[in-house]
Amino acid sequence: MSTLIVGGGAAGCMCAVLCAEGGEKTILLEKNGKTGKKIYITGKGRCNLTADYSPQEFLQSVVHGDKFLRTAIYSFTPEDTKRFFENSGLELVTERGNRVFPASGKSSDVIKTLNARLASAGVLVETDAEVVAVGKNDDCVFTVSLADGRTLYADNLVIATGGKSYPATGSTGDGYAFAESFGHSVVKPVPSLAALITVESVAELKGLSLKNVELSAYSASGKKIRSEFGEMLFTDKGVSGPVALTLSSWLNRESGATLSLDLKPALSEEKLEQRILRDFAERLNSDLKNVTRALLPERLNTYVLKRAGVAESKKANSVTKEERRRIVAAVKGLTFRCAGVAPFEEAVVTSGGVSLKELTPHCESRLVKNLYFIGEVIDADALTGGFNLQIAFSTAAVCAKSITSAAAK
Ligand SMILES: Cc1cc2nc3c(=O)[nH]c(=O)nc-3n(C[C@H](O)[C@H](O)[C@H](O)COP(=O)(O)OP(=O)(O)OC[C@H]3O[C@@H](n4cnc5c(N)ncnc54)[C@H](O)[C@@H]3O)c2cc1C
C-alpha cells in the first residue's frame, strides 16, 4: 500500500515517519523548500514540543475538540512524544508549566531530528512540491496534482496542511479547499492565541507589561465568559501576553465583547479604598498622581486617572469621595471594548477547520475511505504550552496506526 502525505509540518513529518516505519511506501509533499518551517519559529525559536501532563490533565487545556482528541491523546501521549524524540537522540528539558523543550534550546534540533527519522525510515520527501488539487479516481486511487503539472497516485491520502496562521510559513489554509472538494464541511477558521484589539486607544501604554493582573471577558449581553490571571502586555492596538492570548480562544467568535482589567486582584474594593485613604492622609498636599504612583506604574497611573476622569494635578486633600470611588473602580475594572482578535498573520493557531463530526477518532474521513486529516487543519485547538504540537503529533500517530494496521490485514 502507498501513502501520500500533503504538508511537511509537525503532523505530516510525524505521520510519515510512523507510516514508513510501519512498512508503508510513504511520500511526503511539502510546498516549501524545506520541512518544518513553522516548527522553527515555535516557542520563540526554542520549540515547546509537548506539555508533560497525563492525557486526562492534557485534555483540560484543549479548547475545541477535547472529546474527539481523547483517542489520539491516550494512544500517543506526551510521554510518547518525549520518548520518540529522546530515542532519536534529542535531549529534552521540562520547564515551568510542564513545558518540554530540546535541551539545546534550538527548535532547529527538533526539525533535524524529524528529518533524520524521515530519512532512516525511508520516506520519500519531496520539497518545493505544492499540491494544487486532490481527488479519487474510479479505481479508488487518490490523485494528487502538483503545481509543476505532475499527478501522483496513492492508496491513502493524508492532509496535514496546517491552518491559516503565520501564512509565511506555508500554512495558507489549502487543506480546507481539499476537504471541501471531497464533500467535507469546514468550520470557519478564525485566528486564535492572538492579541486582542481594543476600541479604546492604549497606544500611550504600548510596551508596558503587567504581572499578577486579572483580565475578564464579557459577552455583548454582559455575561461573564472567562477570567484569566497572570501576565499581560499593552500593544499599540490593544492587549497581548499570556492572559490576552488565552482569552482570545474564547473571544474569536464573539462580537461586542468587553474586557475588564483588574490591576489589583489581590485587594477587594474596600481594601483598595482604605489603602488610598491612608496614602492620601499621609500626603494631603501632594498632587494626586504622586500619591497614586505608589499603586501603579507611571504611564498606567496617568492613564487610569484620565479614565477615572480625575485631574492628576489635583491635590490629594481636594479629591472628593465620588472621585476616589471612580479611581477605585478604574483600578479594579478598567474596561475596554474588544474590537476583535489580531489577524492570522499574528495568531499562534487557527481555531476551526475540518469538521470533527465527519472524522473517526483515528482522523479518517467518514465520507471517503482511506482519506485522513491531521494536525491543525482539523477543528481542534488548545492553549499555549506545547499542547498544539502534541495534538499534531497525536493525530499523526493515530492516523499512521490506522493506515499501517489496515495494510497489515
Ligand atoms: C509563532 C508560533 C509559535 C508557536 N509555538 C508553539 C509551541 O511552542 N508549542 C506548540 O505546541 N505549538 C506552538 N505553535 C503552534 C504549532 O506550531 C502548530 O499548531 C503546529 O505546528 C501545527 O502543525 P501542522 O503540522 O498541523 O501544521 P503546520 O506546521 O502549519 O504545517 C503544515 C505544512 O503544510 C505545508 N503545506 C500547506 N499547504 C500545502 C500544499 N498545498 N502543498 C504542499 N504543502 C503544503 C506547509 O508549507 C506547512 O509546512 C506555534 C505557532 C506559531 C505560529
Strand and helix layout:
Blueprint: E1 2-6, H1 10-21, E2 25-29, H2 37-41, E3 50-51, H3 55-59, E4 62-64, H4 66-75, H5 78-87, E5 92-95, E6 99-102, H6 107-121, E7 124-126, E8 131-136, E9 142-146, E10 151-154, E11 156-159, H7 174-181, E12 186-192, E13 196-198, E14 209-218, E15 224-234, E16 238-240, H8 242-251, E17 258-262, H9 269-282, H10 288-292, H11 298-308, H12 321-332, E18 334-341, E19 349-354, E20 371-373, E21 381-382, H13 387-408
Parallel strand pairs: 1-2, 1-11, 2-7, 11-20
Antiparallel strand pairs: 3-6, 4-21, 5-6, 8-9, 9-10, 12-19, 13-16, 13-18, 14-15, 14-17, 15-16, 17-18
Written account of the structure:
Strands 13-16-15-14-17-18 form a six-stranded antiparallel beta barrel. A five-stranded parallel beta sheet has the order 7-2-1-11-20, sandwiched between helices. It has a three-stranded antiparallel beta sheet with strand order 3-6-5. It is built from 13 helices and 21 strands. The longest helix has 22 residues, at 387-408. A hairpin with a 5-residue loop joins strand 8 (131-136) and strand 9. It starts with a strand and ends with a helix. It is elongated and about 85 Å long. Helices cover 34% and strands 25% of the residues. The model has no long low-confidence stretch (mean pLDDT 97). The protein has helices at 10-21, 37-41, 55-59, 66-75, 78-87, 107-121, 174-181, 242-251, 269-282, 288-292, 298-308, 321-332, 387-408, and strands spanning 2-6, 25-29, 50-51, 62-64, 92-95, 99-102, 124-126, 131-136, 142-146, 151-154, 156-159, 186-192, 196-198, 209-218, 224-234, 238-240, 258-262, 334-341, 349-354, 371-373, 381-382. It has two domains: 2-191 and 350-408, 3-Layer(bba) Sandwich (FAD/NAD(P)-binding domain); 195-342, Helicase, Ruva Protein, domain 3 (Orthogonal Bundle), CATH 1.10.8. With 409 residues, the chain is α+β, with helices and mostly antiparallel strands. The structure holds flavin-adenine dinucleotide. Flavin-adenine dinucleotide binds next to helix 1, helix 2 and helix 13. Residues 6-12, 29-32, 37-38, 41-43, 47-48, 130-131, 160-162, 165-166, 170-171, 174, 348-349, 375-376, 386-389, 392 line the site of flavin-adenine dinucleotide.
